Amino acid sequence: MNLPASGRRVLVSGASRGLGRAVARAFAAQGDRVAVHYASRAEEARLTLASLDGTGHSLVGGDLGDPAGAAAVADAAAEALGGIDVLVNNAAVNVRHPLPETPYEEWAEVWQRHVTVNLLATANLSHLAARRMIDQGTGGRIVNIGSRGAFRGEPDHPAYGATKAAVHALGQSLAVSLAPYGIAVASVAPGFFATERVAPRLEGAEGEAIRAQSPFGRVAGPDEIAAAVLWLASPAAEWSSGTILDLNGASHLRS
Questions:
Q1: Over pLDDT 90: what percentage of the chain?
Q2: Is 147 a catalytic residue?
Q3: Which of 20, 64, 104, 139 has the CB geometry, 3.0–4.6 Å to 14, for a possible disulfide?
Q4: CA-based nearest residue to 38, from 67, 76, 9
Q5: Residue 84, SS3 per DSSP
């Protein structure tokens, strides 16, 4: 079960912009072929696709929150690439919903959406990709995008923190389950990093407070997170299976 160092077939969920785009670019830059998944941001996903080095990449749209939609995405990616060697579970939602300010009906709806997309879609896509890796017989890699918030708490985004903690636990369970097939599973737990979506928060006093969370006095760039994902997906990282890698600039230290 020898996983190649490059030329692999990589599915990146939620790759239309931000971290997903950076991850897709990182894999393509080393010679892998990438299926760029998007849910609704088709035009931005096309920009991601156009920015990738090399050839043989593809665009795959679909709603991962629907089990049938997740199956369709995995089928389309496998057909376009000729299989799947690496899955990066990046797609997620993160909606502000502090309990004291959120009406119950909205609270229940937000929680359902977070569980559906952040957890169940990750579990379903992992199953779909791992079954292909098993059948291919050459091993594989699954890397989940978790969060620092799973450890330190997210008072304004509790469903996000809770579902990311569940993603970490899922990754560790799958690491044990899939090791006999040469499939390594790991997660990264980023702190705050700069993307288009959060750019307004990095301005003014709020931005200063966010940067001050780290003794480096800054936030990460998406390329720094993507570099860690790339390593965890590499042949050299098999012995890191089951790990949850903190990427937060010493802004939160776990014992």
A1: 93
A2: yes
A3: 20
A4: 76
A5: coil
